[in-house]
Please model this.
Amino acid sequence: MELTPRFFQPSADSFFLFGPRGTGKTSWSQSLFPNALRFDLLDPATLRELAAQPERLRQRIDAHPEARHILLDEVQKLPELLEVVHLLLEQKRGLQFILTGSSARKLRRAGVNLLGGRAAQKSLHPYMAAELGDRFQLETALQLGLLPVVLGAQNPGEILRAYNGLYLREEVQAESLVRNVGSFARFLEAMSFSHGSVLNLANVARDCQVNRKTAEGYLEILEDLLLGFRLPVFSRRAQRALAAHPKFFFFDTGVFRANRPAGPLDAPAEIDGAALEGLVAQHLRAWCDYTGESQQLFYWQTRSQNEVDFVVYGSRGLHALEVKNTSRIRPADLRGLRAFGEDYPEATRWLLYRGRERLVCEGVLCVPVAEFLAELRPGSFPRSVSPAQAPH
Model:
């Protein structure tokens, strides 16, 4: 696949660019900064040289006075280099550092302060549908996800199956993040059953045969490696008793599929529904990060089991979205959005489904999910029905 322009916008100053392996951090940074002085810490020779003498970074930069952009790939491999970067930034030499990383864990555990606020923290996500344009195919995205490294491969299914092994070998095992790699592999599979669901760590711990404390540690590793995220409950101006636990998602639908067993006892409709909800989740998460302005993503669930899959809150408005893996809309599908509208009448409400028509039902705009994703671009939400205009 040819290089696809991304919605992500860099900072004018030095910045960290975090994102899981395969999201295209290196390709993006090399295309935007083609003349940057680059240090690839996945290259064993470069890693050995700088690990032995971190000050060699400054010496090599000094040897290229024409270089204004310095690219450090996978900086978490050698956090000690940030001390040198910090010193160079203090000297105000007009250098811009682009510091990519697929894990924040080693940086944080080493006590690194991420340059004391001198470098912004940015995130790169899998493709959004609108970035792919006409090349976006909903069914393909639901099966393979939207990782550039997967979609650009000649055999995407094989690359996706190898993806977990890459992380287990190069991140978890090589960095000795866990004592028992087999237990962590079972944990990944157990977490696939929680994808798109309210998280119950006690059940997950039991399924992968570890204690709850170990499961909590594994979950932190999963999040630090940027492979998954928790979605908190939206509780602003709450009028009802709400659920207490977050939901969990893998960062990419294809990675979820790679971890989720699919056999005679696994209902395809259940897996497909979780995949569809996860695909919407990763788009909304990318939209929040790329839009900025403190956009935040939540879900909403009351103790009486009224639920809305996603709530987007920030300066761009309040949006409630329900995702249904169905081509027909039933009155029961609108129950959670109806309750949310009673508590938050200023919210725009969406039902994303597998049908073909745009409809307005009880003040809720029902939109084909592929159409919604194709229209979702950073900085603006797709056209909706305003709360004041919506018929009730």
Q: What stands out?
A: The mean pLDDT is 90. Residues 15-123 form a domain with the Rossmann fold fold (CATH 3.40.50.300).
